[in-house]
Write a structure and sequence with these properties.
Elements (H helix, E strand, L loop, with lengths): L1 E2 L4 E2 L18 H9 L5 E2 L12 H19 L9 H12 L10 E5 H13 L5 E6 L3 H9 L3 E8 L2 E2 L1 H13 L4 E6 L13 H13 L3 E5 L15 H4 L8 E6 L10 E5 L2 H15 L4 H13 L2 H26 L8 E2 L7 E5 L6 H10 L2 E2 L1 E2 L12 E5 L5 H25 L22
Helix pairs in contact: 2-10, 4-5, 4-9, 6-7, 11-13
This protein binds pyridoxal-5'-phosphate.
Length: 443
């Protein structure tokens, strides 16, 4: 069915599309955008960075000078690998998370989303397996579906991807003769779970990948947005002592500058980098010259790191508002509810007790003028019904508190409904397990 604005109609082209389009469905997030963006709705759904924190006047000055003095080259086609000046700057950005990289091994992409697309394009045939965390970034699942990959989930807990679960997933895939091409992970300030892979697990995950001879794709758009201490060292940095060729690292300026510029990158082993450039050339000829020059000029002319620090502070305040409001309103309504406590990034992952269904509850939440993303969006296998992703990046702290009040009302009504008509299990049942298993004690 195709949407035609006011109504949906039968798609007359339905029998002509390539098989790979079968996996292409509008994400739950996209479907939500229309309602969630109404001003009366508090949206805890989207992952939009807070652009209003950017010094737009200063940026306008840089863009003006760029066009006036270098317009002829900035508006021309560029290299398929990306602007060499920007690639060198990207290496200094990656050094902040401990990565020692050569600009020659960097490919600039149209956001890290295109990095994901190109990496999957060059490695995955239909039916190949990609192991992802449970839950995993919805945009990555969309790419893997588009290339007709089979996604296998491996457990994630409060310490990030569980190495033993990864090992088990890889063993099980090997035992049935499946070809595992990639392990995909967001180790730092996970989207959607908000958790961070511990340092010890970073080496363990690398060891598991080495034992199974599989490539690790490290997606790190939030790495510089930590709320305490030094930036967490990337897995790619831990891999430098011998396993660097095992890791393909994805980075982005979307969360630390502006997503509308669509500038991201891939750092890849040399041979992979060459294939990526060929794939990039066939996809776009070259990444957008103008966007690259805007980023490069801004980073060179302004205190970009100071700006990142300001973003960190803004998001920390919002994270605190969300965590405080959840603690104030939810446990007395549903004692078995639990949620993660992110130390950076944009997201909190909330798990309701058994018997409650975040997906079924969503229309009632939107009617009550609050939106979230139901957990099912982040699983390839339909799991996650009791879970939801709450984003604190965009609304102000006051709106976040109001949103949680509204959410608590919806959950309370849902619990009442269950106690009247359902199994009565929603209140306070506690068991242990992963994020989609029945919840452990609230901590
Ligand atoms: C984990 C993750 N990877 C990739 C992306 C895509 O980012 P970009 O804007 O760089 O394409 C996002 C955006 O939300 C994300 O959360």
């Amino acid at each position: 069915m195709a949407s035609t604005g006011h109504h949906t109609r039968f798609d007359a082209y339905g029998d002509r599309y390539a098989t790979r389009t079968k996996g292409m469905n509008a994400s739950e997030i996209r479907a939500l955008f229309a309602v969630a963006s109404r001003p009366e709705v508090v949206s805890l759904a989207g992952g939009m960075p807070s652009i209003s924190g950017l010094p737009l006047d200063a940026l306008a000055g840089s863009v003006h000078r760029l066009v006036a003095t270098h317009g002829a080259s900035a508006l021309q086609y560029g290299s398929g690998q990306g602007d060499p000046v920007l690639r060198a700057q990207i290496c200094t950005v990656m050094a902040l998370v401990g990565i020692d990289a050569d600009p020659e091994d960097v490919v600039v992409t149209v956001g890290s989303q295109q990095g994901l697309d190109l990496v999957t394009r060059i490695f995955c045939d239909p039916g190949d397996v990609v192991v992802c965390e449970a839950p995993s970034y919805v945009g990555a699942l969309g790419v893997f579906r588009a290339y007709e990959c089979e996604v296998v989930h491996a457990e994630l807990d409060d310490g990030g991807l569980v190495p033993a679960a990864l090992d088990q997933a890889l063993r099980a895939a090997a035992a049935r003769g499946a070809r595992v091409k990639l392990v995909y992970t967001v180790p730092t300030y996970h989207n959607p779970a908000g958790v961070t892979l511990s340092e010890q697990r970073r080496t363990e995950v690398l060891d598991v990948c080495a034992a199974h001879d599989v490539l690790l794709v490290e997606d790190d758009p939030y790495g510089l947005l930590g709320f305490s201490g030094e930036p967490v060292r990337a897995i790619r940095a831990a891999a430098q002592s011998g396993a660097a060729d095992r890791v393909v690292y994805l980075g982005s300026f979307s969360k630390t500058f502006a997503p509308g510029l669509r500038v991201g990158w891939v750092l890849a082993p040399h041979a992979v980098r060459e294939k990526l450039v060929l794939a990039q050339e066939s996809a776009t000829l070259c990444p957008p010259s103008f966007s690259q020059r805007v980023v490069s000029t801004y980073v060179a002319e302004h205190d970009w790191l100071g700006q990142v620090k300001a973003f960190r502070e803004l998001y920390r305040e919002r994270r605190d508002a969300l965590l405080d409001a959840l603690a104030e309103h939810l446990p007395q309504i549903v004692p078995g509810v639990r949620w993660t406590r992110p130390d950076g990034g944009f997201y909190v992952w909330l798990t309701l007790p058994e018997g409650l269904d975040a997906q079924a509850m969503l229309p009632r939440a939107v009617t009550n003028r609050v939106a979230y993303v139901p957990g099912t969006a982040f699983y390839a296998d339909g799991s996650g019904r009791r879970c939801m992703r709450l984003s604190y990046c965009h609304p102000t702290p006051a709106r976040i508190r109001e949103g949680v009040r509204r959410l608590a009302d919806v959950v309370a009504a849902e619990v009442d409904l269950h106690e009247t008509f359902g199994t009565g299990r929603a209140r306070g049942r506690t068991t242990t397990g992963g994020y989609d298993a029945p919840p452990a004690d609230q901590s």
